[in-house]
Fold each of these.
Amino acid sequence: YITEGQIILSRPLHRKGISPPIDVLPSLSRLKDKGIGPGKTREDHADTFNQLFAAYARGKEAQELAV
């Protein structure tokens, strides 16, 4: 049985009181590219998503290096 994706929960986010404590980077949908495009989302959706994802990843990496 194959699921569409997985949601990864984070103990550190839970300890900070963030609910739901979803760790965004490893929780990505395998079908995200099938849910975007003409008639579904804006033309710039994929580019905007990729920019936001990259910025989030850089911020998370900087946060980990600062510890």
Amino acid sequence: MKRLTPFDFIEKATAVHGDQYDYSKIIHVYASEKVIIICKKHNYEFSQRPHDHLRGSGCPICSGKMKKTAEEFIRAAREIHGNKYAYDR
């Protein structure tokens, strides 16, 4: 990917993702360095390589790739299985 100005990157990213993200923390855009992007839906700040973002990658929460904490996993498991299993450490 050729070097982009922040303006060019934001313009291209908006063409791919619409108004889903806030790019206000981007100062420089280098292919090998991650940029900080904010998901407007979750108000979640994450970092990503510009090339990956322009190819369609986005918020890890929206994509379901965000790992759950142990407490979140146990809560979800109990909703499904009730108290059938013990979740002690």
